[in-house]
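testing teh design pipeline on a random one, pls ignore if ur not involved
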């Protein structure tokens, strides 16, 4: 007797009404996407009541808001101990994948709730630029779509990008126009009918850009301008793909941050005549960053770290060397403002991968100067050594055994991300230093296997994939096994579907082109191979 419920259909966990044919990628429920932008699909065997088992609760011993389930469900997973003749049950694997999808969706809903709270602050102040239903629709896409997609870490709620970026739009009509441009770009990433709107909104922003920036650059409090420039840089990842324009945005952001009084104080701690212990007491309260400043600095540091991969040698003169940039930013990035279960929860953008992205930034900079002179070669060798022995942080025992599994999972994702970024830096530097080496080198293929292992540990729609476009592009060139290539493309496609970021599609096109041409790892030696890549 045939089962009445077709196995080829999926039901939306959000509304449980609309059904479409199943595919290997994340299917879309148009109504729920329009309403929340974080809809997740799962088979009908996952009950709608599962969503009610997740609540936003505050731990009594910590100011941090966690997401976890009150009822702990036991996953039906086969034992890892199998004999050679035993096979893995497809049903068990699918069930784990569906649970991961649900967990990922709940995390995005948690981030969306923080973003919505921040948006309410703006509504209380009037929102001078919110005039029409279309504006409200696009603004909703910015709050519940764009900002959720760029919030990758489980961090303190006051450090979340949404909590930092969104409130500034309430008092500034031009910044609100920037938010509209970002929301429209988010919608246009997967909808061709929205592309004209995205372009018109961006044209409106850029039409006033020069006048606004010149007039506001010297304001005593220009953090709203930093928010605007970083939002525009992030907007390019969803729809725009103008790398040169992004470089200009980041250059202006760094100049603004560099002129903050606190930045100057932080970099003058080693002033003449004061012992180190006295200087720390005198200066600590003076240059300690606010949560807003801390998030803005790290958002800049991340975007700056990865932009070198897509720069050409003409554009590189617009940005300062990362060897100088990170030396200036280090006193700011080292600050831990809150006592969190894991130290890297004070890093709202890069999390545990913050030191790995510094390696990536410097490796990308050296790639711009290939072939090396003697001085650059010594720098590359030193960086290669750091990347080779890079050890990501581990989950503290008190977190592993006392915190809910959903919290542990998000924090572990950050550790896996750190290792993936370091592997990318190692593979890039190794090729630059030893260009004649083939990708079949045992050390390289061992690292590819380690990368695949870390990739498998990331949940199906992990939000942290949004910051891993740089290592994905680098490591992918050195993959030679067909099953590993297929697996990576499959993961990239599903990451892109979940986050709605067009960068993943561009990386897929880039890797397919590199593999088909036979270039493979050799592509890292010629920057022209990256001309059409944007991450």
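output:
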């Amino acid at each position: 007797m045939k089962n009445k419920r077709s196995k080829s259909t999926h039901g939306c966990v959000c509304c449980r009404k609309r059904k479409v044919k199943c595919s290997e990628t994340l299917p879309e429920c148009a109504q729920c996407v329009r309403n929340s932008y974080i809809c997740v699909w799962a088979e009908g065997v996952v009950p709608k009541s599962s969503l009610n088992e997740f609540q936003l609760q505050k731990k009594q011993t910590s100011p941090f808001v966690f997401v976890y389930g009150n009822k702990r469900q036991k996953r039906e997973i086969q034992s890892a101990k199998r004999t050679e003749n035993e096979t893995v049950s497809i049903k068990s694997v699918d069930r784990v994948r569906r649970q991961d999808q649900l967990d990922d969706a709940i995390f995005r809903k948690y981030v969306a709730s923080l973003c919505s709270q921040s948006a309410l602050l703006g509504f209380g102040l009037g929102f001078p630029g919110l005039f029409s239903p279309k504006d409200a629709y696009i603004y909703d896409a910015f709050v519940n779509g764009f900002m959720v997609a760029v919030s990758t870490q489980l961090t303190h709620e006051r450090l979340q990008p949404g909590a930092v970026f969104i409130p500034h739009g309430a008092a500034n009509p031009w910044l609100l126009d920037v938010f509209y441009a970002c929301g429209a770009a988010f919608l246009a990433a997967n909808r061709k009918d929205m592309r004209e709107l995205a372009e018109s909104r961006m044209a409106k922003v850029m039409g006033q850009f020069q006048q606004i920036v010149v007039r506001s650059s010297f304001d005593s409090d220009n953090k709203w301008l930093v928010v605007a420039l970083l939002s525009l840089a992030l907007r390019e990842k969803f729809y725009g793909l103008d790398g040169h324009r992004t470089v200009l945005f980041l250059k202006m952001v760094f100049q603004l941050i560099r002129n903050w009084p606190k930045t100057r104080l932080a970099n003058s701690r080693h002033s003449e005549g004061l012992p180190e212990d006295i200087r720390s007491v005198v200066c600590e309260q003076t240059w300690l960053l606010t949560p807003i400043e801390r998030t803005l600095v790290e958002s800049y540091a991340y975007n700056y770290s990865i932009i070198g991969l897509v720069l050409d040698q003409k554009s590189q003169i617009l940005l300062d060397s990362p060897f100088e940039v990170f030396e200036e930013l280090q006193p700011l990035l080292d600050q831990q403002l809150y006592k969190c279960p894991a130290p890297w929860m004070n890093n709202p953008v890069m999390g545990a991968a913050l030191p790995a992205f510094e390696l990536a930034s410097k490796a990308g900079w050296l790639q711009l100067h290939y072939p090396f002179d003697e001085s650059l070669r010594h720098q590359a060798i030193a960086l290669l050594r750091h990347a080779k022995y890079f050890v990501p942080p581990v989950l503290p025992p008190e977190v592993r055994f006392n915190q809910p599994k959903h919290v542990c999972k998000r924090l572990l994702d950050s550790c896996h991300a750190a290792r993936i970024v370091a592997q990318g830096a190692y593979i890039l530097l190794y090729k630059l230093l030893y260009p004649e080496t083939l990708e079949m080198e045992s050390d390289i293929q061992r690292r590819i296997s380690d990368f695949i292992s870390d990739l498998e540990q990331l949940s199906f729609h992990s939000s942290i994939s949004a910051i891993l476009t740089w290592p994905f592009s680098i490591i992918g060139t050195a993959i030679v096994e067909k099953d590993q290539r297929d697996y990576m493309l499959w993961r990239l496609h599903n990451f892109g579907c979940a986050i709605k970021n067009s960068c993943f599609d561009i990386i897929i096109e880039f890797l397919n082109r590199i593999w088909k041409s036979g270039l493979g790892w050799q592509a890292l030696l010629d920057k022209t191979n990256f001309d059409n890549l944007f991450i």
